[in-house]
């Protein structure tokens, strides 16, 4: 049985995050390393439906994480396409497209900023100290990829949509990873 207190807390979280998902080119969803990942004002791409979405900063892209392969810390993901609808209050939405690709953190100290559902805010971790573990748990909560569903993970801190703005180096390694709000 869920606590009655969880309902107002969940409502407060959603209310706090909805404005952050707006199709605002000036919104900053990045964790540093240059311009906001949502791009600076004026840099947008049309979606063919009368709306425009912010584009990732140079050297960044948005991915949808399907799972993380075990001890190898290989993030298996598809690139994500953004969609914004003119006049919509839903904000930006992302959709996985194309083939799966493999990405690895450049090092154990790679900064991974995640959305903490429990704390209703983003928090910075490193790949080695909880970042990749959070990504893995949230992307594959039933442990289907490697545990054959034998063990269910604690997903109470997961935002749940698994879209991340990543900065990639010349060797296709993740040098920065930031979970993004998406409707």
The helical percent reads 10-25%
Rg of Cα set: 16 Å
Query: What number is the mean pLDDT?
Result: 74
Unreliable runs: 1-50
- Strand percentage, roughly? 25-35%
Broad shape:
globular
Sheet with the most strands: spatial strand order: 3-4-5-9-8
Which series of helices and strands comes N to C?
A: HEEEEEEEHEE
Give me the secondary-structure topology:
Elements: H1 6-17, E1 44-46, E2 52-54, E3 60-69, E4 74-83, E5 93-105, E6 111-116, E7 121-126, H2 131-139, E8 163-168, E9 173-179
Parallel strand pairs: 5-9, 6-9
Antiparallel strand pairs: 1-2, 3-4, 3-8, 4-5, 6-7, 8-9
Question: Quick recap of the structure?
Answer:
The chain is mainly beta. It has two helices and nine strands; from the N terminus they run αβββββββαββ. Strand 6 and strand 7 form a beta hairpin.
What descriptive keywords fit this protein?
disordered N terminus, 5-stranded mixed β-barrel, 183 residues, mainly beta
């Amino acid at each position: 049985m869920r606590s009655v207190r969880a309902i107002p807390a969940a409502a407060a979280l959603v209310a706090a995050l909805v404005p952050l998902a707006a199709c605002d080119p000036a919104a900053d969803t990045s964790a540093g390393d240059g311009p906001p990942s949502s791009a600076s004002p004026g840099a947008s791409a049309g979606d063919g439906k009368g709306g425009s979405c912010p584009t990732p900063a140079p050297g960044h892209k948005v991915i949808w994480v399907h799972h993380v392969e075990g001890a190898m810390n290989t993030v298996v993901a598809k690139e994500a396409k953004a969609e914004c609808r003119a006049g919509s209050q839903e904000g930006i939405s992302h959709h996985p497209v194309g083939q799966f690709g493999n990405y690895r953190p450049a090092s154990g100290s790679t900064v991974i900023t995640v959305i903490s559902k429990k704390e209703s805010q983003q928090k910075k971790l490193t790949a080695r100290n909880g970042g990749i573990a959070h990504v893995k748990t949230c992307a594959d909560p039933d442990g289907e990829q490697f545990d054959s569903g034998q063990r269910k993970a604690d997903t109470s801190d997961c935002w749940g949509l698994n879209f991340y703005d990543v900065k990639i180096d010349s060797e296709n390694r993740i040098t920065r990873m930031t979970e993004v709000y998406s409707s």
